[in-house]
Amino acid sequence: MAAKRFFTILLLMVVNLQLMAQDNITSQINTPLLQKYIDLAKEYYPKRKMYKASELSAKAKIGAAKAGYLESLNASYFYRPDNASIIDATNPYSINGFQFGVYFNLGLFFRTPSLVKQAREEYNAASYQTKEYDILLTSEVRQRYFEYLQWLNDLKVKNQAFIDNKTASDALRYKFEKGEVSLDVYSKAKSLTSISSSEKLQSELNMLRAKDNLEALIGQRLEDVK
After folding, report:
1. Are 173 and 193 in contact (CB under 8 A)?
2. Is 54 or 99 the better-scoring residue by pLDDT?
3. I want to staple 210 with a disulfide (CB 3.0 to 4.6 A). Which of 23, 24, 148, 185 is the partner?
4. How far is 22 from 25, CA to CA, in rounded Å?
5. pLDDT digits (tens, 9 = 90+) for 1-49
6. CATH of domain 2-71+106-224
7. Whole-number Å distance between alpha carbons of 183 and 198
8. Domain edges within the chain
9. Residue 73 phi, psi (nearest 5)
10. Contact 176, 186 (CB under 8 A)
11. Residue 182 and residue 172: Cα distance in Å, rounded?
12. What sections of the chain are H helices per DSSP?
């Protein structure tokens, strides 16, 4: 009867720790720190850099397309010394001094607006892709941060459960050596401690994986982000 009461109390303690951990996850969310993680991911993550580079490249093409207006105009000059003889006296254009000319490419001039519009649309498309990826990246950072908090809290629960089980097991060992409890009760307590230890190790592994996944996005160790 005492053994049954002991295991019931132990089970209630573990359940209570788990409920407390679940209640505390929301309160443990550090919003400013989470925003830093998001900003770091946008600054560091290579795929996001790729989208941003495509956006900047598309923006530069707008200026290159506008240059078509200038390219459609071509000015030139020719200088002939005043004391030089005219090659052909019958040619009224072969004169001494400066000669200026302006050439206008009508086809290129009328084609330039469409090239500028096309460049603008390519820039808009690249900009929308960057914004879309920012939304996805923000969501991914938040999700990995929440998973990290979940496993961090789970580790705290499992660690405390192990401590409680170990303490109870040690106490029962003392009572067993004095003949106050049976071998069956003591063996069950040791088994629970062993199970609790394995759960704690698995929880620690899950926490480290979640931490590593988050750090892979922001490019820094969580301990270095203040």
Report:
1. no
2. 54
3. 148
4. 6
5. 444 554 454 554 555 545 555 556 788 899 999 999 999 999 999 999 9
6. 1.20.1600.10
7. 23
8. 2-71+106-224
9. -110, 135
10. yes
11. 9
12. 2-25, 31-44, 46-66, 68-71, 106-177, 183-218
